[in-house]
Specification:
The chain is an alpha+beta fold. The protein contains 10 helices and 11 strands. The strands form 3 sheets. Strands 1, 2, 3, 4, 6, 7 and 8 form a 7-stranded mixed sheet that branches. A two-stranded antiparallel sheet has the order 5-11. A two-stranded antiparallel sheet has the order 9-10. It has one domain: 2-Layer Sandwich (Beta Polymerase, domain 2). Strand 9 (about 240) and strand 10 form a beta hairpin. The protein is globular and about 50 Å long. Helix 5 (about 140-160) crosses helix 6. The two termini are about 25 Å apart.
Length: about 290
């Protein structure tokens, strides 16, 4: 894939994601739903007033209660080409415990996905999407719960999708892929098994309203730890510019970003300025401005 072609794909992906973000922000404002940009999207908004130049995705956060309101909006209102997917729905491509906002009629399959799982998206595929990380109330024992939650997350993904056997990358990679394949084979007779893992996860993280919140949805324990914050340090959210319009960010975004990334205002070395490597991308009938 030539460098010019990669840059064109990146730019077009950013355009579609920006359009999705505008629509999502309006839906939330019109329906009194709070959210905030997070992770690399928050860094991009603060440092670049838009995308990190080489980034090709969007990450958002919101309270789980706000997400429940958002689901009702998508069930009752015309949301155009946007649709939600989550582990409690029947979307065949959904692979994590956090929900996603998707753009209908597009395709975006990463090289990492294609290399590791049987379903590779050459005919069909997951749409261009962004992640919505849900926050829950918690107490100081949140890391104990986070550690327990990891097995449910792995069980969900590795029993819903058949792992490819990875050869030529060392014994560790092969054994890991074999274990994932065996997990899939064992539970493939119960199509509801992945969803059952999600229900167990929800029961595990259940907590009454408290002063602190955390995002258990993330894939690593370090990200869970970095998300831990007082509710009143996160809300009310504050405005920040992103690609020419105003979006929301955590009230004390600096605390969260420094906990996760350190000096996030410092640009990383050139060799670390990389995006997800796409395997299959299609923009469908999306109308780009000339």
């Amino acid at each position: 894939m030539s460098e010019i072609y990669k840059q064109e794909l990146l730019k077009k992906t950013q355009i579609v994601l920006t359009d999705m973000m505008r629509q999502f922000d309006k839906l939330c404002r019109d329906n009194d739903i709070d959210y905030f940009v997070s992770y690399g999207t928050a860094i991009g908004a603060v440092r670049h007033q838009g995308f990190i130049p080489w980034d090709d995705d969007i990450d958002l956060g919101m309270m789980r209660s706000d997400y429940e309101k958002l689901k009702k909006v998508f069930e009752t209102q015309d949301t155009g080409n946007l649709f939600l997917s989550s582990p409690d729905m029947d979307d065949e491509w959904h692979e994590k415990f956090f929900p996603k906002l998707n753009y209908r009629g597009t395709v975006y399959v990463s090289e990492n996905w294609h290399d590791n799982f049987e379903k590779d998206g050459e005919v069909d595929g997951r749409p261009i999407n962004f992640d919505i990380f849900l926050y829950d109330y918690c107490d100081e024992n949140f890391m104990q719960i986070a550690k327990k939650s990891m097995s449910y997350k792995r069980n969900y993904m590795y029993t819903k999708f058949k792992a490819k056997l990875i050869k030529g990358k060392g014994i560790g990679a092969f054994v890991s892929s074999l274990v994932k394949r065996i997990m899939y084979d064992i539970h493939s007779s119960d199509p509801d098994y992945p969803k059952k893992q999600f229900w167990k996860y929800l029961k595990l993280i259940e907590h009454p309203e408290s002063d602190y919140i955390v995002c258990y949805d993330t894939w690593t324990e370090s990200d869970v730890k970095g998300s831990y914050i007082r509710y009143d340090e996160s809300f009310p959210t504050v405005p920040v510019m992103f690609e020419g319009f105003e979006v929301k960010i955590q009230k004390n975004y600096d605390k969260t970003l420094r906990e996760t990334y350190g000096d996030y205002m410092q640009l990383p070395p050139v060799d670390q300025r990389v995006a997800h490597r796409p395997y299959n991308v299609s923009f469908g009938d999306y109308k780009f401005d000339e």
